[in-house]
Design goal:
- This protein has about 80 residues and is mainly alpha-helical.
- It has one domain.
- The protein has two helices and no strands.
- Helix 1 runs antiparallel to helix 2 (about 30-80).
C-alpha cells in the first residue's frame, strides 16, 4: 500500500473512532444524535469523494506525461537508428 493509501486509511479510521466516541458521549437525544451522525457521514463521504477525484486527476496527469515521454523517446530512437 502506498503512502497516500495509508494516510487515507488512517484518516478514515480516526474519523470512525471519533464518530463512535461522539455517539457514546453524546449529551443529545437519540433523534438529534442521529441527525448529527447523518450530517457527519455525508461530510465524510464528500471529503472522501473529493480525495478520490483528486487522486484520479493526479493519476491521469502522470499517465499522460509518461505516455508523452515514452512516445518522444520512441520517436527519438527511431530517428537515431535510421541509417
Amino acid at each position: 500500500m502506498n503512502t497516500t493509501g495509508k494516510v487515507l486509511v488512517g484518516v478514515l479510521a480516526g474519523a470512525a473512532a471519533g464518530l463512535l466516541t461522539g455517539i457514546l458521549m453524546a449529551p443529545d437525544s437519540g433523534k438529534k444524535t442521529r441527525e448529527k451522525l447523518l450530517g457527519k457521514t455525508k461530510d465524510l463521504k464528500n471529503k472522501t469523494q473529493e480525495t478520490l477525484d483528486d487522486a484520479k486527476r493526479t493519476y491521469n496527469k502522470k499517465m499522460e506525461t509518461f505516455a508523452g515521454e515514452g512516445k518522444s523517446s520512441i520517436d527519438y530512437l527511431k530517428d537515431t537508428l535510421k541509417v
